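Let us practice reading a record.
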Amino acid sequence: MTGYTAISSEFGWIGVALSARGVRALTLPSADRAIAIERACASAGAGATVLNAEETAALEARIGALLAGESHDLGIELDPLGTPFQRAVWDALVRIPRGETLTYGTIAEMVGRPGAARAVGQAVGANPLPLVIPCHRVIGANGGAGGFAGGIPLKRALLAAEGVAI
């Protein structure tokens, strides 16, 4: 099934794009449902259709449980598109426990590329599944927030929901 939808969360509307193999992309939360739908549609690609209400409700429940810390994954195969290096970085991000943070440099070491913190930052920024692949848990070497495509206030809110203050 390929398709897309937008679900409501405590942080705003999240667009979800599915490929035939699994979840292809999640958009960062938006205050505007139409924007979330538009972004999800673009990620889903040609031929994708809007998911029905039942499919949307199931995704909303799974993502809600994930955001609340009641679950550690979506229970659906992930199918992000990326280079081998990006995928290695994203695999490392999934291993960061809820309520913890790691630095870009530590992630670089985890993927066998010590000194490649900047390249890790680019891979983190290209993450098509934020919230599921928790890029908000990566911080700067100085303990600062670092970057975040959704903005630093959203990064701080996501971390605060996990009990982390930066």
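A brief commentary: The chain has two domains: 3-67, 84-161.
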